[in-house]
Amino acid sequence: MNKETAVIRVRDLVKKFGKFTANDKLCFDVYEGEIFGFLGANGAGKTTALRILCGLSLPTSGEISVAGLDLYSNRERIKKRIGYMSQKFSLYEDLKVYENIRLYAGIYGLSRKEIKQRTDELLETLELEAVRNKRIAELPLGWRQKLAFSVAIIHRPRIVFLDEPTGGVDPITRRQFWDMIYQASRDGITVFVTTHYMDEAEYCDRVCIMEAGRIDAIGTPTELMEEYKAENMDEVFIRIAR
Amino acid sequence: MKRFRGFVIKEFNHILRDFRTLLILFGLPAIQLLIFGYVVSNELKDIHIAIFDQSRDRITRDIANKIISSEYFIFDGYLDNTHEIDEKFREGKIKQVIIFEPGFGENLMREKSADIQLIADASDANTANLVVSYTSAIIQDYMMDLRKNAGAKMQIIPEIRMMYNENMAGAYMFVPGVMALILMIVSALMTSITITREKETGTMETLLVSPLKPIQIVIGKVTPYIILSFFNAVTIVAMGYFVFGLPVQGSLSLLLLECLLFISVALSLGIFISTIVETQQMAMFFSMMILMLPTILLSGFIFPVENMPEVLQWVSHIVPAKYFIIIVKSIMLKGTGMAFVWKETLVLVFMMLFFIGNSVRRFKIRLE
Questions:
Q1: How far is CA B265 from the centre of its chain?
Q2: Which residue in the set A79, A86, A87 is minimally distant from B210, CB to CB?
Q3: Contact B126, B301 (CB under 8 A)
Q4: Does the beta carbon of A168 lie under 8 angstroms from any beta carbon of chain B?
Q5: Is the reported ipTM for this assembly greater than 0.90?
Protein backbone atom coordinates (compact mmCIF):
# COMPACT_ATOMS: atom_id res chain seq x y z
CA MET A 1 0.00 0.00 0.00
CA ASN A 2 1.27 3.41 -0.91
CA LYS A 3 -0.09 6.05 1.38
CA GLU A 4 1.35 8.81 -0.79
CA THR A 5 -0.97 8.38 -3.75
CA ALA A 6 -4.71 8.59 -3.40
CA VAL A 7 -6.33 6.84 -6.38
CA ILE A 8 -9.73 7.96 -5.20
CA ARG A 9 -10.20 11.35 -3.60
CA VAL A 10 -13.62 12.36 -2.38
CA ARG A 11 -14.40 15.72 -0.77
CA ASP A 12 -17.86 16.78 0.39
CA LEU A 13 -19.70 14.34 -1.83
CA VAL A 14 -23.43 14.98 -1.61
CA LYS A 15 -26.09 12.96 -3.39
CA LYS A 16 -29.75 13.83 -3.05
CA PHE A 17 -32.76 12.06 -4.46
CA GLY A 18 -35.40 14.73 -4.19
CA LYS A 19 -35.53 15.58 -0.49
CA PHE A 20 -33.77 12.43 0.60
CA THR A 21 -30.03 12.77 1.17
CA ALA A 22 -28.36 9.46 0.34
CA ASN A 23 -24.79 10.73 0.77
CA ASP A 24 -24.14 13.62 3.12
CA LYS A 25 -20.76 15.35 2.69
CA LEU A 26 -18.60 12.27 2.37
CA CYS A 27 -14.83 12.83 2.59
CA PHE A 28 -12.28 10.06 2.16
CA ASP A 29 -9.20 8.94 0.25
CA VAL A 30 -8.44 5.49 -1.08
CA TYR A 31 -4.74 4.71 -1.47
CA GLU A 32 -3.09 2.90 -4.29
CA GLY A 33 -3.11 -0.89 -3.92
CA GLU A 34 -5.18 -1.10 -0.76
CA ILE A 35 -8.35 -3.02 -0.08
CA PHE A 36 -10.84 -0.42 1.02
CA GLY A 37 -14.04 -1.65 2.61
CA PHE A 38 -17.22 0.34 2.58
CA LEU A 39 -19.43 -0.92 5.38
CA GLY A 40 -22.92 -0.21 6.49
CA ALA A 41 -26.42 -1.58 6.84
CA ASN A 42 -28.65 -1.79 3.82
CA GLY A 43 -29.74 1.70 2.84
CA ALA A 44 -26.80 3.42 4.55
CA GLY A 45 -25.76 4.86 1.20
CA LYS A 46 -22.71 2.75 0.36
CA THR A 47 -23.98 1.51 -2.99
CA THR A 48 -25.00 5.05 -3.94
CA ALA A 49 -21.46 6.26 -3.33
CA LEU A 50 -19.97 3.36 -5.24
CA ARG A 51 -22.27 3.99 -8.21
CA ILE A 52 -21.18 7.61 -8.31
CA LEU A 53 -17.50 6.63 -8.30
CA CYS A 54 -18.15 4.22 -11.19
CA GLY A 55 -19.95 6.85 -13.24
CA LEU A 56 -23.32 5.09 -13.04
CA SER A 57 -24.85 8.03 -11.25
CA LEU A 58 -24.07 11.74 -11.02
CA PRO A 59 -23.30 13.39 -7.67
CA THR A 60 -25.34 16.39 -6.59
CA SER A 61 -22.16 18.17 -5.52
CA GLY A 62 -18.63 17.52 -4.29
CA GLU A 63 -15.08 17.21 -5.53
CA ILE A 64 -14.24 13.74 -6.75
CA SER A 65 -11.31 12.25 -8.58
CA VAL A 66 -10.96 8.62 -9.61
CA ALA A 67 -7.76 7.02 -10.91
CA GLY A 68 -6.15 10.44 -10.88
CA LEU A 69 -8.82 12.01 -13.08
CA ASP A 70 -11.57 14.47 -12.30
CA LEU A 71 -14.91 12.65 -12.30
CA TYR A 72 -16.88 15.40 -14.01
CA SER A 73 -14.60 16.05 -16.95
CA ASN A 74 -13.06 12.62 -17.58
CA ARG A 75 -15.82 10.07 -17.25
CA GLU A 76 -14.93 8.27 -20.46
CA ARG A 77 -11.22 8.00 -19.59
CA ILE A 78 -12.00 6.86 -16.05
CA LYS A 79 -14.13 4.03 -17.41
CA LYS A 80 -11.11 2.47 -19.11
CA ARG A 81 -9.15 2.45 -15.84
CA ILE A 82 -11.75 0.81 -13.61
CA GLY A 83 -13.43 -2.54 -13.30
CA TYR A 84 -16.83 -3.27 -11.78
CA MET A 85 -18.72 -6.21 -10.39
CA SER A 86 -22.18 -5.76 -8.95
CA GLN A 87 -24.12 -7.65 -6.32
CA LYS A 88 -26.27 -8.89 -9.16
CA PHE A 89 -24.54 -11.45 -11.26
CA SER A 90 -22.86 -9.90 -14.28
CA LEU A 91 -21.95 -12.63 -16.76
CA TYR A 92 -24.26 -13.72 -19.55
CA GLU A 93 -25.76 -17.07 -18.66
CA ASP A 94 -26.53 -18.07 -22.23
CA LEU A 95 -22.98 -17.40 -23.40
CA LYS A 96 -20.13 -19.85 -23.00
CA VAL A 97 -17.31 -19.25 -20.55
CA TYR A 98 -14.78 -18.19 -23.19
CA GLU A 99 -17.39 -16.07 -24.98
CA ASN A 100 -18.02 -14.06 -21.83
CA ILE A 101 -14.33 -13.47 -21.37
CA ARG A 102 -13.89 -12.55 -25.03
CA LEU A 103 -16.84 -10.15 -24.91
CA TYR A 104 -15.66 -8.16 -21.90
CA ALA A 105 -12.04 -8.19 -22.98
CA GLY A 106 -13.18 -6.92 -26.38
CA ILE A 107 -15.32 -4.18 -24.84
CA TYR A 108 -12.25 -2.95 -22.97
CA GLY A 109 -10.32 -2.78 -26.19
CA LEU A 110 -7.90 -5.67 -25.75
CA SER A 111 -6.32 -7.01 -28.93
CA ARG A 112 -7.14 -10.46 -30.22
CA LYS A 113 -3.76 -11.77 -29.13
CA GLU A 114 -4.11 -10.33 -25.64
CA ILE A 115 -7.59 -11.75 -25.35
CA LYS A 116 -6.42 -15.23 -26.24
CA GLN A 117 -3.45 -15.08 -23.90
CA ARG A 118 -5.37 -13.72 -20.93
CA THR A 119 -8.23 -16.15 -21.45
CA ASP A 120 -5.81 -19.07 -21.24
CA GLU A 121 -4.10 -17.60 -18.20
CA LEU A 122 -7.34 -16.91 -16.44
CA LEU A 123 -8.83 -20.34 -17.08
CA GLU A 124 -5.63 -21.97 -15.91
CA THR A 125 -5.49 -20.00 -12.67
CA LEU A 126 -9.13 -20.72 -11.92
CA GLU A 127 -8.73 -24.34 -13.03
CA LEU A 128 -11.68 -23.91 -15.31
CA GLU A 129 -10.10 -25.12 -18.56
CA ALA A 130 -12.45 -28.08 -18.67
CA VAL A 131 -15.55 -25.89 -18.77
CA ARG A 132 -14.22 -23.43 -21.34
CA ASN A 133 -16.98 -24.37 -23.78
CA LYS A 134 -19.76 -24.67 -21.23
CA ARG A 135 -22.44 -22.06 -20.80
CA ILE A 136 -22.35 -20.00 -17.62
CA ALA A 137 -25.80 -21.33 -16.68
CA GLU A 138 -24.26 -24.79 -16.29
CA LEU A 139 -21.67 -23.68 -13.72
CA PRO A 140 -22.17 -23.69 -9.92
CA LEU A 141 -22.69 -20.25 -8.40
CA GLY A 142 -19.31 -20.21 -6.65
CA TRP A 143 -17.43 -20.75 -9.92
CA ARG A 144 -19.44 -18.10 -11.65
CA GLN A 145 -18.67 -15.58 -8.95
CA LYS A 146 -14.95 -16.21 -9.21
CA LEU A 147 -15.10 -16.06 -12.98
CA ALA A 148 -17.06 -12.82 -12.84
CA PHE A 149 -14.39 -11.27 -10.66
CA SER A 150 -11.59 -12.39 -12.98
CA VAL A 151 -13.49 -10.99 -15.94
CA ALA A 152 -14.02 -7.69 -14.11
CA ILE A 153 -10.25 -7.26 -13.86
CA ILE A 154 -9.28 -8.79 -17.21
CA HIS A 155 -8.24 -5.39 -18.58
CA ARG A 156 -5.96 -4.86 -15.53
CA PRO A 157 -7.73 -1.80 -14.19
CA ARG A 158 -6.19 0.47 -11.57
CA ILE A 159 -9.23 0.16 -9.37
CA VAL A 160 -11.91 -2.51 -9.16
CA PHE A 161 -15.27 -1.70 -7.59
CA LEU A 162 -17.09 -4.61 -5.97
CA ASP A 163 -20.65 -4.03 -4.88
CA GLU A 164 -21.51 -6.66 -2.24
CA PRO A 165 -19.74 -9.31 -4.30
CA THR A 166 -20.25 -12.11 -1.80
CA GLY A 167 -23.97 -11.74 -1.23
CA GLY A 168 -25.69 -15.11 -1.18
CA VAL A 169 -22.48 -17.16 -1.42
CA ASP A 170 -21.52 -19.98 0.94
CA PRO A 171 -18.72 -19.36 3.50
CA ILE A 172 -16.11 -21.49 1.70
CA THR A 173 -16.61 -19.73 -1.60
CA ARG A 174 -16.53 -16.41 0.23
CA ARG A 175 -13.17 -17.29 1.70
CA GLN A 176 -11.87 -18.32 -1.75
CA PHE A 177 -13.26 -15.13 -3.22
CA TRP A 178 -11.31 -13.10 -0.71
CA ASP A 179 -8.17 -14.99 -1.65
CA MET A 180 -8.72 -13.71 -5.18
CA ILE A 181 -9.21 -10.18 -3.90
CA TYR A 182 -5.89 -10.43 -2.03
CA GLN A 183 -4.19 -11.66 -5.17
CA ALA A 184 -5.57 -8.74 -7.16
CA SER A 185 -4.37 -6.38 -4.47
CA ARG A 186 -0.90 -7.95 -4.56
CA ASP A 187 -0.92 -7.38 -8.33
CA GLY A 188 -1.35 -3.67 -7.64
CA ILE A 189 -5.07 -3.30 -8.25
CA THR A 190 -6.83 -1.11 -5.72
CA VAL A 191 -9.97 -2.81 -4.42
CA PHE A 192 -13.02 -0.83 -3.37
CA VAL A 193 -15.57 -3.19 -1.86
CA THR A 194 -18.93 -2.68 -0.19
CA THR A 195 -20.26 -5.29 2.19
CA HIS A 196 -22.52 -5.75 5.15
CA TYR A 197 -20.69 -8.82 6.44
CA MET A 198 -18.70 -7.56 9.40
CA ASP A 199 -16.24 -10.48 9.38
CA GLU A 200 -15.25 -9.41 5.86
CA ALA A 201 -14.38 -6.00 7.24
CA GLU A 202 -11.43 -7.57 9.01
CA TYR A 203 -10.00 -8.70 5.66
CA CYS A 204 -9.79 -5.08 4.49
CA ASP A 205 -6.75 -2.84 4.86
CA ARG A 206 -8.96 0.05 5.80
CA VAL A 207 -12.65 0.38 6.33
CA CYS A 208 -15.16 3.15 6.32
CA ILE A 209 -18.42 2.70 8.22
CA MET A 210 -21.48 4.47 6.94
CA GLU A 211 -24.77 5.11 8.59
CA ALA A 212 -27.74 7.09 7.29
CA GLY A 213 -25.74 8.68 4.50
CA ARG A 214 -22.82 9.78 6.69
CA ILE A 215 -19.38 8.36 7.41
CA ASP A 216 -19.20 7.47 11.11
CA ALA A 217 -15.74 6.02 11.30
CA ILE A 218 -12.78 5.42 9.07
CA GLY A 219 -9.49 3.60 9.69
CA THR A 220 -7.79 0.21 9.76
CA PRO A 221 -9.78 -2.54 11.49
CA THR A 222 -7.21 -2.61 14.33
CA GLU A 223 -7.47 1.14 14.85
CA LEU A 224 -11.23 0.98 14.97
CA MET A 225 -11.28 -1.94 17.38
CA GLU A 226 -8.95 -0.04 19.70
CA GLU A 227 -10.89 3.15 19.41
CA TYR A 228 -14.18 1.50 20.22
CA LYS A 229 -12.65 -1.00 22.67
CA ALA A 230 -14.11 -3.90 20.76
CA GLU A 231 -13.06 -7.51 20.25
CA ASN A 232 -14.04 -7.59 16.59
CA MET A 233 -15.61 -5.49 13.86
CA ASP A 234 -19.07 -6.73 14.71
CA GLU A 235 -18.81 -5.04 18.11
CA VAL A 236 -17.37 -1.90 16.54
CA PHE A 237 -20.35 -1.71 14.30
CA ILE A 238 -22.82 -2.27 17.13
CA ARG A 239 -21.13 0.45 19.26
CA ILE A 240 -21.30 2.91 16.38
CA ALA A 241 -24.87 2.09 15.58
CA ARG A 242 -25.76 2.90 19.15
CA MET B 1 -15.63 -0.37 -33.91
CA LYS B 2 -14.03 -3.66 -32.87
CA ARG B 3 -15.63 -3.33 -29.44
CA PHE B 4 -18.92 -2.75 -31.12
CA ARG B 5 -18.56 -5.77 -33.38
CA GLY B 6 -17.90 -8.09 -30.47
CA PHE B 7 -20.97 -6.69 -28.80
CA VAL B 8 -23.18 -7.37 -31.83
CA ILE B 9 -21.86 -10.93 -32.07
CA LYS B 10 -22.85 -11.44 -28.45
CA GLU B 11 -26.32 -10.15 -29.23
CA PHE B 12 -26.71 -12.59 -32.12
CA ASN B 13 -25.64 -15.40 -29.79
CA HIS B 14 -28.38 -14.45 -27.33
CA ILE B 15 -30.95 -14.68 -30.09
CA LEU B 16 -29.74 -17.86 -31.73
CA ARG B 17 -29.50 -19.72 -28.42
CA ASP B 18 -32.93 -18.91 -27.12
CA PHE B 19 -35.52 -21.24 -28.56
CA ARG B 20 -38.41 -18.97 -27.64
CA THR B 21 -36.83 -15.99 -29.32
CA LEU B 22 -36.23 -18.00 -32.46
CA LEU B 23 -39.81 -19.18 -32.42
CA ILE B 24 -41.13 -15.64 -32.26
CA LEU B 25 -38.73 -14.49 -34.92
CA PHE B 26 -39.35 -17.15 -37.49
CA GLY B 27 -42.37 -19.20 -36.46
CA LEU B 28 -44.65 -16.27 -35.92
CA PRO B 29 -44.71 -14.85 -39.45
CA ALA B 30 -45.83 -18.17 -40.93
CA ILE B 31 -48.41 -18.79 -38.23
CA GLN B 32 -49.82 -15.28 -38.48
CA LEU B 33 -50.17 -15.48 -42.24
CA LEU B 34 -52.20 -18.66 -41.87
CA ILE B 35 -54.35 -17.48 -38.98
CA PHE B 36 -55.27 -14.20 -40.55
CA GLY B 37 -56.12 -15.95 -43.78
CA TYR B 38 -59.51 -16.31 -42.20
CA VAL B 39 -60.87 -12.85 -42.37
CA VAL B 40 -63.23 -11.57 -39.76
CA SER B 41 -66.48 -10.11 -41.10
CA ASN B 42 -68.14 -7.03 -39.69
CA GLU B 43 -70.71 -4.28 -40.02
CA LEU B 44 -70.56 -1.40 -42.47
CA LYS B 45 -70.88 2.27 -41.65
CA ASP B 46 -70.08 5.58 -43.31
CA ILE B 47 -68.43 4.20 -46.41
CA HIS B 48 -67.56 6.89 -48.90
CA ILE B 49 -68.96 6.31 -52.36
CA ALA B 50 -69.28 8.21 -55.66
CA ILE B 51 -71.69 7.80 -58.53
CA PHE B 52 -71.01 8.04 -62.24
CA ASP B 53 -74.47 8.49 -63.74
CA GLN B 54 -74.38 8.47 -67.55
CA SER B 55 -78.15 8.50 -67.80
CA ARG B 56 -79.37 11.04 -65.23
CA ASP B 57 -83.07 10.13 -65.43
CA ARG B 58 -85.74 9.74 -62.80
CA ILE B 59 -85.03 6.09 -62.08
CA THR B 60 -81.26 6.46 -61.64
CA ARG B 61 -81.90 9.38 -59.30
CA ASP B 62 -84.34 7.25 -57.31
CA ILE B 63 -81.87 4.41 -56.99
CA ALA B 64 -79.04 6.81 -56.08
CA ASN B 65 -81.19 8.45 -53.42
CA LYS B 66 -82.11 5.11 -51.97
CA ILE B 67 -78.47 4.08 -51.73
CA ILE B 68 -77.29 7.41 -50.38
CA SER B 69 -80.04 7.68 -47.81
CA SER B 70 -79.15 4.30 -46.35
CA GLU B 71 -77.07 4.60 -43.20
CA TYR B 72 -74.16 2.73 -44.68
CA PHE B 73 -72.82 5.25 -47.14
CA ILE B 74 -71.58 8.80 -47.40
CA PHE B 75 -72.09 10.30 -50.84
CA ASP B 76 -69.02 12.09 -52.18
CA GLY B 77 -70.59 13.44 -55.34
CA TYR B 78 -71.20 12.63 -58.98
CA LEU B 79 -68.31 11.87 -61.31
CA ASP B 80 -68.11 13.15 -64.87
CA ASN B 81 -65.91 10.67 -66.69
CA THR B 82 -64.16 7.34 -66.34
CA HIS B 83 -60.80 8.95 -65.62
CA GLU B 84 -62.16 10.36 -62.46
CA ILE B 85 -63.06 6.89 -61.20
CA ASP B 86 -59.45 5.83 -61.32
CA GLU B 87 -58.29 9.04 -59.75
CA LYS B 88 -60.72 8.83 -56.84
CA PHE B 89 -59.72 5.28 -56.06
CA ARG B 90 -56.03 6.11 -56.09
CA GLU B 91 -56.60 8.93 -53.64
CA GLY B 92 -58.06 6.25 -51.41
CA LYS B 93 -60.98 8.39 -50.26
CA ILE B 94 -63.81 6.37 -51.70
CA LYS B 95 -64.47 2.69 -51.43
CA GLN B 96 -67.09 2.26 -54.18
CA VAL B 97 -68.21 3.83 -57.44
CA ILE B 98 -71.66 3.08 -58.85
CA ILE B 99 -72.02 3.42 -62.63
CA PHE B 100 -75.32 3.66 -64.46
CA GLU B 101 -75.20 2.86 -68.18
CA PRO B 102 -76.38 5.57 -70.62
CA GLY B 103 -80.15 5.50 -71.09
CA PHE B 104 -80.65 3.41 -67.96
CA GLY B 105 -84.25 4.35 -67.27
CA GLU B 106 -85.27 4.00 -70.91
CA ASN B 107 -83.67 0.58 -71.20
CA LEU B 108 -85.40 -0.57 -68.08
CA MET B 109 -88.82 0.57 -69.30
CA ARG B 110 -88.45 -0.54 -72.90
CA GLU B 111 -86.26 -3.64 -72.71
CA LYS B 112 -87.13 -4.54 -69.13
CA SER B 113 -83.45 -4.77 -68.34
CA ALA B 114 -80.68 -2.33 -67.49
CA ASP B 115 -77.08 -2.53 -66.40
CA ILE B 116 -75.53 -1.06 -63.31
CA GLN B 117 -71.86 -1.48 -62.46
CA LEU B 118 -70.45 -1.56 -58.94
CA ILE B 119 -66.70 -1.01 -58.59
CA ALA B 120 -65.20 -1.46 -55.16
CA ASP B 121 -61.73 -0.81 -53.77
CA ALA B 122 -60.82 -4.37 -52.93
CA SER B 123 -57.39 -3.69 -51.52
CA ASP B 124 -59.45 -4.04 -48.37
CA ALA B 125 -61.13 -7.24 -49.48
CA ASN B 126 -63.36 -7.60 -46.47
CA THR B 127 -64.90 -4.15 -46.69
CA ALA B 128 -65.21 -4.36 -50.47
CA ASN B 129 -67.22 -7.54 -50.20
CA LEU B 130 -69.60 -6.04 -47.69
CA VAL B 131 -69.97 -2.77 -49.59
CA VAL B 132 -70.91 -4.54 -52.80
CA SER B 133 -73.38 -6.90 -51.20
CA TYR B 134 -75.08 -4.10 -49.25
CA THR B 135 -75.40 -2.02 -52.42
CA SER B 136 -76.73 -4.95 -54.42
CA ALA B 137 -79.32 -5.59 -51.74
CA ILE B 138 -80.55 -2.00 -51.89
CA ILE B 139 -80.84 -2.15 -55.69
CA GLN B 140 -82.69 -5.45 -55.41
CA ASP B 141 -85.05 -3.86 -52.97
CA TYR B 142 -85.75 -0.98 -55.30
CA MET B 143 -86.47 -3.37 -58.16
CA MET B 144 -89.00 -5.29 -56.10
CA ASP B 145 -90.89 -2.07 -55.40
CA LEU B 146 -90.79 -1.13 -59.07
CA ARG B 147 -92.13 -4.52 -60.13
CA LYS B 148 -94.97 -4.29 -57.65
CA ASN B 149 -96.02 -0.89 -58.96
CA ALA B 150 -95.49 -1.45 -62.67
CA GLY B 151 -96.52 -5.06 -62.59
CA ALA B 152 -94.02 -5.83 -65.31
CA LYS B 153 -91.03 -8.15 -65.14
CA MET B 154 -88.09 -5.84 -64.96
CA GLN B 155 -84.48 -6.58 -64.28
CA ILE B 156 -81.52 -4.57 -63.10
CA ILE B 157 -78.30 -6.45 -63.56
CA PRO B 158 -75.49 -5.36 -61.23
CA GLU B 159 -72.08 -6.05 -62.63
CA ILE B 160 -69.45 -6.12 -59.97
CA ARG B 161 -65.79 -5.29 -60.29
CA MET B 162 -63.24 -5.45 -57.54
CA MET B 163 -60.55 -2.86 -58.13
CA TYR B 164 -56.94 -3.77 -57.29
CA ASN B 165 -57.89 -7.26 -56.25
CA GLU B 166 -59.93 -8.97 -58.91
CA ASN B 167 -59.94 -12.37 -57.26
CA MET B 168 -60.87 -11.07 -53.83
CA ALA B 169 -57.96 -12.94 -52.37
CA GLY B 170 -57.89 -12.49 -48.61
CA ALA B 171 -54.11 -12.38 -48.77
CA TYR B 172 -54.35 -8.94 -50.33
CA MET B 173 -55.76 -7.69 -47.15
CA PHE B 174 -53.88 -9.51 -44.49
CA VAL B 175 -50.39 -9.55 -45.92
CA PRO B 176 -49.79 -5.83 -45.23
CA GLY B 177 -51.40 -6.26 -41.82
CA VAL B 178 -49.33 -9.29 -40.91
CA MET B 179 -46.25 -7.45 -42.09
CA ALA B 180 -47.04 -4.55 -39.76
CA LEU B 181 -47.76 -6.93 -36.89
CA ILE B 182 -44.65 -9.05 -37.31
CA LEU B 183 -42.33 -6.10 -37.68
CA MET B 184 -43.93 -4.47 -34.65
CA ILE B 185 -43.57 -7.58 -32.49
CA VAL B 186 -40.09 -8.51 -33.57
CA SER B 187 -38.72 -5.01 -33.45
CA ALA B 188 -40.48 -3.35 -30.53
CA LEU B 189 -41.33 -6.28 -28.29
CA MET B 190 -38.02 -8.05 -28.70
CA THR B 191 -35.96 -4.89 -28.30
CA SER B 192 -37.74 -3.84 -25.15
CA ILE B 193 -37.36 -7.34 -23.73
CA THR B 194 -33.71 -7.73 -24.61
CA ILE B 195 -32.81 -4.38 -23.07
CA THR B 196 -34.82 -4.91 -19.90
CA ARG B 197 -33.32 -8.39 -19.59
CA GLU B 198 -29.89 -6.81 -19.25
CA LYS B 199 -31.26 -4.43 -16.65
CA GLU B 200 -32.73 -7.32 -14.69
CA THR B 201 -29.65 -9.51 -14.73
CA GLY B 202 -27.43 -6.58 -13.82
CA THR B 203 -25.32 -6.85 -16.94
CA MET B 204 -26.58 -3.44 -18.09
CA GLU B 205 -24.71 -1.77 -15.23
CA THR B 206 -21.56 -3.64 -16.10
CA LEU B 207 -21.92 -2.40 -19.65
CA LEU B 208 -22.59 1.17 -18.51
CA VAL B 209 -19.45 1.13 -16.37
CA SER B 210 -17.44 -0.10 -19.38
CA PRO B 211 -16.00 2.24 -22.00
CA LEU B 212 -18.92 1.45 -24.33
CA LYS B 213 -21.05 4.54 -24.80
CA PRO B 214 -24.78 4.18 -24.06
CA ILE B 215 -25.56 4.88 -27.70
CA GLN B 216 -23.21 2.05 -28.72
CA ILE B 217 -24.93 -0.29 -26.32
CA VAL B 218 -28.34 0.56 -27.71
CA ILE B 219 -27.30 0.37 -31.35
CA GLY B 220 -25.40 -2.83 -30.65
CA LYS B 221 -28.50 -4.35 -29.14
CA VAL B 222 -30.87 -3.36 -31.93
CA THR B 223 -28.62 -4.08 -34.92
CA PRO B 224 -29.39 -7.82 -35.02
CA TYR B 225 -33.08 -7.04 -34.78
CA ILE B 226 -32.93 -4.58 -37.68
CA ILE B 227 -31.29 -7.25 -39.80
CA LEU B 228 -33.70 -10.01 -38.73
CA SER B 229 -36.78 -7.79 -39.09
CA PHE B 230 -35.74 -6.74 -42.53
CA PHE B 231 -35.22 -10.37 -43.44
CA ASN B 232 -38.73 -11.05 -42.14
CA ALA B 233 -40.21 -8.23 -44.22
CA VAL B 234 -38.58 -9.63 -47.35
CA THR B 235 -39.83 -13.12 -46.45
CA ILE B 236 -43.40 -11.92 -46.03
CA VAL B 237 -43.38 -10.05 -49.35
CA ALA B 238 -41.88 -13.12 -51.02
CA MET B 239 -44.42 -15.44 -49.36
CA GLY B 240 -47.20 -13.12 -50.47
CA TYR B 241 -45.92 -13.30 -54.00
CA PHE B 242 -45.08 -16.98 -54.33
CA VAL B 243 -47.71 -18.52 -52.04
CA PHE B 244 -50.65 -16.16 -52.45
CA GLY B 245 -49.81 -14.63 -55.82
CA LEU B 246 -49.86 -11.15 -54.36
CA PRO B 247 -48.03 -8.81 -56.72
CA VAL B 248 -46.03 -5.72 -55.87
CA GLN B 249 -47.44 -3.18 -58.31
CA GLY B 250 -45.29 -0.29 -57.20
CA SER B 251 -41.59 0.10 -56.61
CA LEU B 252 -40.09 -2.78 -54.62
CA SER B 253 -37.23 -0.65 -53.34
CA LEU B 254 -39.65 2.01 -52.08
CA LEU B 255 -41.63 -0.73 -50.35
CA LEU B 256 -38.51 -2.08 -48.65
CA LEU B 257 -37.41 1.40 -47.65
CA GLU B 258 -40.79 2.00 -46.05
CA CYS B 259 -40.39 -1.33 -44.25
CA LEU B 260 -37.04 -0.17 -42.93
CA LEU B 261 -38.64 3.07 -41.75
CA PHE B 262 -41.39 1.18 -39.97
CA ILE B 263 -38.84 -1.15 -38.38
CA SER B 264 -36.99 1.92 -37.10
CA VAL B 265 -40.20 3.33 -35.64
CA ALA B 266 -40.88 0.02 -33.89
CA LEU B 267 -37.31 -0.24 -32.60
CA SER B 268 -37.33 3.27 -31.21
CA LEU B 269 -40.67 2.47 -29.58
CA GLY B 270 -39.10 -0.65 -28.06
CA ILE B 271 -36.17 1.35 -26.74
CA PHE B 272 -38.58 3.91 -25.34
CA ILE B 273 -40.55 1.21 -23.53
CA SER B 274 -37.36 -0.20 -22.06
CA THR B 275 -36.50 3.19 -20.58
CA ILE B 276 -39.85 3.21 -18.77
CA VAL B 277 -40.04 -0.31 -17.37
CA GLU B 278 -37.60 -2.28 -15.25
CA THR B 279 -38.54 -5.90 -15.81
CA GLN B 280 -39.04 -8.19 -18.77
CA GLN B 281 -42.59 -8.95 -17.67
CA MET B 282 -43.46 -5.28 -17.66
CA ALA B 283 -41.86 -4.85 -21.06
CA MET B 284 -43.89 -7.75 -22.37
CA PHE B 285 -47.08 -6.41 -20.84
CA PHE B 286 -46.54 -2.91 -22.19
CA SER B 287 -45.71 -4.20 -25.62
CA MET B 288 -48.82 -6.34 -25.70
CA MET B 289 -51.12 -3.58 -24.48
CA ILE B 290 -49.80 -0.62 -26.37
CA LEU B 291 -48.38 -2.32 -29.44
CA MET B 292 -49.92 -5.62 -30.36
CA LEU B 293 -53.57 -5.09 -29.64
CA PRO B 294 -53.80 -1.66 -31.29
CA THR B 295 -51.79 -2.97 -34.22
CA ILE B 296 -54.28 -5.78 -34.71
CA LEU B 297 -57.49 -4.00 -33.82
CA LEU B 298 -57.07 -0.30 -34.56
CA SER B 299 -54.80 -0.18 -37.57
CA GLY B 300 -57.40 -1.05 -40.18
CA PHE B 301 -55.73 -4.45 -40.41
CA ILE B 302 -58.90 -6.42 -39.71
CA PHE B 303 -61.55 -3.87 -38.91
CA PRO B 304 -61.92 -0.85 -41.20
CA VAL B 305 -61.07 2.32 -39.32
CA GLU B 306 -64.02 4.12 -40.96
CA ASN B 307 -66.47 1.87 -39.12
CA MET B 308 -65.09 2.43 -35.65
CA PRO B 309 -66.64 4.68 -33.02
CA GLU B 310 -65.19 8.17 -33.25
CA VAL B 311 -63.11 7.82 -30.08
CA LEU B 312 -61.36 4.75 -31.42
CA GLN B 313 -60.78 6.51 -34.73
CA TRP B 314 -58.86 9.18 -32.84
CA VAL B 315 -56.85 6.52 -31.06
CA SER B 316 -56.07 4.90 -34.39
CA HIS B 317 -54.25 8.07 -35.44
CA ILE B 318 -51.44 7.31 -33.01
CA VAL B 319 -51.06 3.69 -34.07
CA PRO B 320 -47.97 3.58 -36.29
CA ALA B 321 -49.17 0.42 -38.02
CA LYS B 322 -52.16 2.30 -39.45
CA TYR B 323 -49.90 4.49 -41.54
CA PHE B 324 -47.66 1.64 -42.52
CA ILE B 325 -50.59 -0.45 -43.72
CA ILE B 326 -51.87 2.44 -45.83
CA ILE B 327 -48.41 2.82 -47.34
CA VAL B 328 -47.96 -0.88 -48.02
CA LYS B 329 -51.39 -1.23 -49.60
CA SER B 330 -50.82 1.80 -51.78
CA ILE B 331 -47.47 0.59 -53.02
CA MET B 332 -48.24 -3.12 -53.29
CA LEU B 333 -51.78 -3.04 -54.61
CA LYS B 334 -52.32 0.33 -56.23
CA GLY B 335 -48.82 0.76 -57.55
CA THR B 336 -48.59 4.33 -56.31
CA GLY B 337 -45.34 6.08 -55.52
CA MET B 338 -44.01 8.52 -52.96
CA ALA B 339 -46.35 11.25 -54.24
CA PHE B 340 -49.28 9.39 -52.68
CA VAL B 341 -47.74 8.18 -49.46
CA TRP B 342 -45.48 11.06 -48.39
CA LYS B 343 -47.90 12.19 -45.71
CA GLU B 344 -48.00 8.80 -44.02
CA THR B 345 -44.22 8.48 -44.42
CA LEU B 346 -43.74 11.82 -42.74
CA VAL B 347 -45.95 10.79 -39.83
CA LEU B 348 -43.80 7.70 -39.31
CA VAL B 349 -40.60 9.75 -39.43
CA PHE B 350 -41.99 12.10 -36.78
CA MET B 351 -43.05 9.19 -34.60
CA MET B 352 -39.54 7.75 -34.81
CA LEU B 353 -37.91 11.06 -33.88
CA PHE B 354 -40.36 11.49 -31.01
CA PHE B 355 -39.55 8.11 -29.47
CA ILE B 356 -35.80 8.42 -29.95
CA GLY B 357 -35.78 11.93 -28.48
CA ASN B 358 -37.75 10.83 -25.45
CA SER B 359 -35.63 7.74 -24.91
CA VAL B 360 -32.45 9.81 -24.87
CA ARG B 361 -34.06 12.27 -22.46
CA ARG B 362 -35.27 9.53 -20.12
CA PHE B 363 -31.91 7.81 -20.26
CA LYS B 364 -30.20 10.96 -19.05
CA ILE B 365 -32.64 11.36 -16.20
CA ARG B 366 -31.95 7.79 -15.11
CA LEU B 367 -28.24 8.50 -14.94
CA GLU B 368 -28.79 11.47 -12.64
A1: 15
A2: A79
A3: no
A4: no
A5: no
